[in-house]
């Protein structure tokens, strides 16, 4: 097994046979009639997705499909199939090479359930916004149906659901630790992260008649193995970060004298006997070292080991220095190769410059009809993704786990070309670009000042607890891009709707001035998430002082250009590390600043996130984990009970009279009855019959403004943000 640090350029492969005589399809085929129209008798690759098929580079399956088509493969798509039998999976016939399976742009459980585990009635990725068109744990279900439809065809799973479930992970909806989805789905291979580089290599190697079982060395993939290969140095995770002795639980089914299957020391000794490791040259030792994480059985049983495994996983995410990971699941092993090498600007441009029709599949009917409208498409059809990745590292967010923390930026020319394509191809385009952004609005072309330092760095965030001195924070390229986009013929306005890192923005007042002068439509949504240090530290978010500094510049430049513009801050309730007192202080801050949130979101532990590990274990994996109270990182307060979660949401909506009885009771228990009354410094009135106040600033009701704007936006920002990733 050899992992190459210098990857093969995705444009350097010889074209597969179809490219010699076939132009790109207007849209990839979804049925036999589409294949007949193209003159195809079969597909080389069939992609199965839980989303509707939209041929737009903001939809992962379209990107993967077009990238494979550009390599010369015949690619078909089966979107939102009826999973109750294998019949729908036979719609395009037997794939010549492999199945590609994804739940879609979102984890299927996040897509279907709220943070309170209630079923949603809608689905933004389905025509007509209809819910229930994909199964729970869609990757596992789809993979099973693919195997039933045509036996012997390799199954490759990917997308965000597979990425975030590649190891044993805490599952909020079942409230237990589940096995790797690779194990549960019985797929041949799992692709994690942005998948173009991996999937193109897999396709060409299968096209050359290579057995998929031999493909164990592709970065950004996970496979099942029998054990550590010869030539690899196995390092137990406890040698790197010591959690302490395992808790041995008695097994009532074992006879006296037998050893529990959870005896990891014995298993380790047995592996050493059967798989001797040769020690390599020191300079190459790291890239041939695999870290053994605690087994699935161990992390499912032991919360400390779960936090320990999560910490180790996140330490091994930099493509420049990450080591392979291995985790035992019963008698089998999940082997996780290091992350993929990020795409170069040239490669990323090539992906976005492919011939997308920029429309939903024509078989869905009139895109203006209510039954055919796809809300996610309507939201982002006039937006442009200018970069990938995020070095913020927010513990509750899945972007860094999926896309990585190294920013991959497109060229100006490629971005402007896509803006022109929106102008020329999008029906009813009014001249307004809804967003130039991506995972973040203002990380375009920001990166480490030194490639050597970047490759060696193991920090989980480049901006927490403060901005790294090695980080380039120059926003000039982004300002230049904004100006060039505005100057294009037929473009009237360009808005910025992606999440803004205000702690980075304050490093460039010129950027804030450009933003408020030309790219804010009266309101700008921003996410300080909290005001108190306890929860902010657990989120890896900057202190509220950074927000205040940004707001001062925002107000200053808005006034200079003669515009009344307002910030709409977002906050999250019940995040690990948040106490009732923290929420009270946040509510007092909101009232002092005359903010009245119309909709709030409670924390949802997404699979594999650091915050989910906190929720599961009550410990802080951002610091070393130990069983000894005095040594391990501080205990983390977990608002786990529904009553406490409801209280935290009620503090965010202190102005809602329906919440006053709950808040009165809580304030009395907290010894803060002084905050009950009608005074300016008091939080809620003493009597339920008291009228709800309408605070005004500059003569404008903030409650009215925020209610109107937030109803237009997404009411479940953390749980159901429209992602744009592969």
Task: Note the main attributes of this structure.
Transcription Regulator spoIIAA, disordered C terminus, globular, 23 strands, 726 residues, ten-stranded mixed β-sheet, alpha/beta
Please sum up the structure shown.
With 726 residues, the chain is an alpha/beta fold. Among the domains are: 382-519, Transcription Regulator spoIIAA (2-Layer Sandwich); 527-540 and 551-602 and 641-726, no CATH class. Strands 2-1-3-4-7-8-12-11-10-9 form a ten-stranded mixed sheet, sandwiched between helices. It has a three-stranded parallel sheet with strand order 19-20-21. The protein has a two-stranded antiparallel sheet with strand order 5-6.
Mean pLDDT: 88
Principal-axes geometry comes out as globular
Radius of gyration: 26 Å
Q: Please state the structural category.
A: alpha/beta
For the report, how would you describe the main beta sheet? 10 strands, mixed
First and last CA, distance? 27 Å
- What percent of residues adopt helix (DSSP H or I)? 25-40%
Number of strands: 23
Could you outline the blueprint of secondary structure elements for this entry?
Elements: H1 32-38, E1 45-49, H2 60-70, E2 75-79, E3 98-102, H3 108-112, H4 138-149, E4 155-157, H5 159-163, E5 169-171, E6 176-178, H6 181-185, E7 189-191, H7 196-207, E8 221-225, E9 233-236, H8 264-274, H9 282-285, E10 289-292, H10 296-301, H11 303-315, E11 324-329, E12 332-336, H12 345-352, H13 375-380, E13 383-385, E14 387-388, H14 399-403, E15 408-409, H15 412-425, E16 432-433, E17 435-437, H16 451-456, H17 476-486, E18 493-494, H18 502-505, H19 509-518, E19 523-529, H20 533-539, H21 544-560, E20 566-573, H22 580-592, E21 601-602, H23 610-617, H24 642-652, H25 660-669, E22 696-697, E23 700-701, H26 702-712
Parallel strand pairs: 1-2, 1-3, 3-4, 4-7, 9-10, 10-11, 13-17, 16-18, 19-20, 20-21
Antiparallel strand pairs: 5-6, 7-8, 8-12, 11-12, 14-15, 22-23
